[in-house]
Amino acid sequence: MKEGNKDLDFLQEVAKKISIRSTLGSPIAPDEVFDLFEETLESMNDAQIIETPIFIPFIIEKEDEFYTARCHGYRMCRGVGDTKEEAIEKLKEEIDFYNKSAIKTEQKMILEKIVNNIFPKDRF
């Protein structure tokens, strides 16, 4: 998004999408507005998400009848399985879920900032 007029550009994009939907005979329902804002933000955002393989050392421990995989870079993530391979695969899934959640949270924070700039709380 352009730095100077990003809020205005955002509003114009949202208005275009609402207008297109209205001319197609499918007006935007109130419960769809936030989804429309989010979709517009994603389409206007200059940031890109690029997935590349990275190498992270895993720690694998045998505990009773199962294996636990963890790594220091993602302390909240843990994989548990009957085999080392299964524990590692589950850890990879946890890391992927964690990363996607972090990206989604950042997008929501950007959207909230734009909405707060457009509709300041002290005006309502």
Q: What topology emerges from the helices and strands here?
A:
Layout: H1 6-23, H2 33-44, E1 59-63, E2 66-70, E3 79-81, H3 84-118
Strand neighbour order, sheet with most strands: 1-2-3
Instruction: List the helices and strands in order.
Output: HHEEEH
The proportion of strand residues reads 5-15%
Sheet with the most strands? Answer: 3 strands, antiparallel
Low-pLDDT stretches: none
What's the N-to-C terminus distance? 27 Å
How many helices? Answer: 3
Write a structural description.
The chain has 124 residues and is mostly helical. Helix content is 52%, strand content 10%. A 3-stranded antiparallel sheet has the order 1-2-3. Strand 2 (66-70) and strand 3 (79-81) form a beta hairpin. Helix 1 (6-23) crosses helix 2, helix 1 packs across helix 3 and helix 2 (33-44) packs across helix 3. It is elongated and about 60 Å long. The chain starts with 5 loop residues before the first helix and ends in a 6-residue tail after the last helix.
List keywords for this structure.
3-stranded antiparallel sheet; 124 residues; mainly alpha; 3 strands
Brief synopsis:
By secondary structure, the protein is mainly alpha-helical.
